[in-house]
Amino acid sequence: MKALKVIFVLLIICLWMERGFTKEKSAKKGKKKGKQVYCPSQLSSEDLARVPANSTSNILNRLLVSYDPRIRPNFKGIPVEDRVNIFINSFGSIQETTMDYRVNIFLRQRWNDPRLRLPQDFKSDSLTVDPKMFKCLWKPDLFFANEKSANFHDVTQENILLFIFRNGDVLISMRLSVTLSCPLDLTLFPMDTQRCKMQLESFGYTTDDLQFMWQSGDPVQMEQIALPQFDIKQEDIEYGNCTKFYAGTGYYTCVEVIFTLRRQVGFYMMGVYAPTLLIVVLSWLSFWINPDASAARVPLGTFSNHQSRHKHQHLISCLCGVLYPHNHPHLLHFHSPFSSV
């Protein structure tokens, strides 16, 4: 009987703890989700009437109360021109094994939406809008065509900037971290130069509805960036058009930027080739040792050959998965016979 009472009490305690855990989890989830934001078109006439007539909120409500974000600007008319520019905050080093690179960027887009022209009674030339209203507007469906992975940033708030200008221009800026593929040609490694692309393409709108174009001037900007093995300069950046055709759907707008990265040869000169040359010179000391002194000649030759092969294997490990010939092994193979004499 006592055992049944103990089991009953333990069961009640377990149920109570589970209920408390569920409430705590729900509270955290609700806190993370935050307050839900409604677009002006979703508000009732009573809610709209409560907003002061001369306030900025009222002007924003007047712009968006009949706005439909599902329909692009100039519907059935001229295509929307989306002017793009990028600021690079950081540029990650290229990975030879996975053939990709990672960048942290500010992606900025600007297009005109006649439905969002500011009224004459609004005195400022632009209106700064809360990022939470981002979902209430029509936006170009831009994606990175050579993307492997990407993520937004939301510390401490969503890293999104939204402006509406008097003429109806919309400017959005967002901070992203993107990992992009970059097929490498390592034939001339370590004296190679790599060209890595970033392609921005429309996913659902054809060129009849949307066209991307680079902003005039220098559309891709970056401050001084230091990479461990490569040099990258602002003046080496190239721009292009990569509009693509897909059978059955049509042409889709695409723009690209090409980064030229030149490998720093000094690292390999001082870390690989200079030590290898010293090993070869060291192996030649055996010519000055008495031919009968094999106890001195053999260890010297063995050491030189072992160190040369060790350098070779170390560099090969950096290029695992590369099946075609490249410069480095040929140069070290050239050294090996001399260090084995």
From TrEMBL:
Give the keywords, sorted. Cell membrane, Cell projection, Chloride, Chloride channel, Cytoplasm, Disulfide bond, Glycoprotein, Ion channel, Ion transport, Ligand-gated ion channel, Membrane, Phosphoprotein, Postsynaptic cell membrane, Receptor, Signal, Synapse, Transmembrane, Transmembrane helix, Transport
Signal peptide bounds:
1-22
What GO cellular-component annotations does this UniProt entry give? chloride channel complex; cytoplasm; dendrite; postsynaptic membrane
Q: Where is the Neurotransmitter-gated ion-channel transmembrane domain?
A: 272-302
Q: Which residues cross the membrane?
A: 267-289
Assembly description: Forms heteropentamers with glycin receptor alpha subunits. Heteropentamers with GLRA1 can be composed of two GLRA1 and three GLRB subunits, or three GLRA1 and two GLRB subunits, or four GLRA1 subunits and one GLRB subunit. Forms heteropentamers with GLRA2. Functional GLRB-GLRA2 heteropentamers contain four GLRA2 subunits and one GLRB subunit, although alternative subunit composition cannot be excluded. Forms a heteropentamer with GLRA3. Interacts with GPHN.
Task of the protein: Subunit of heteromeric glycine-gated chloride channels. Plays an important role in the down-regulation of neuronal excitability. Contributes to the generation of inhibitory postsynaptic currents.
Q: What is this protein called?
A: Glycine receptor subunit beta
* Organism ancestry: Eukaryota, Metazoa, Chordata, Craniata, Vertebrata
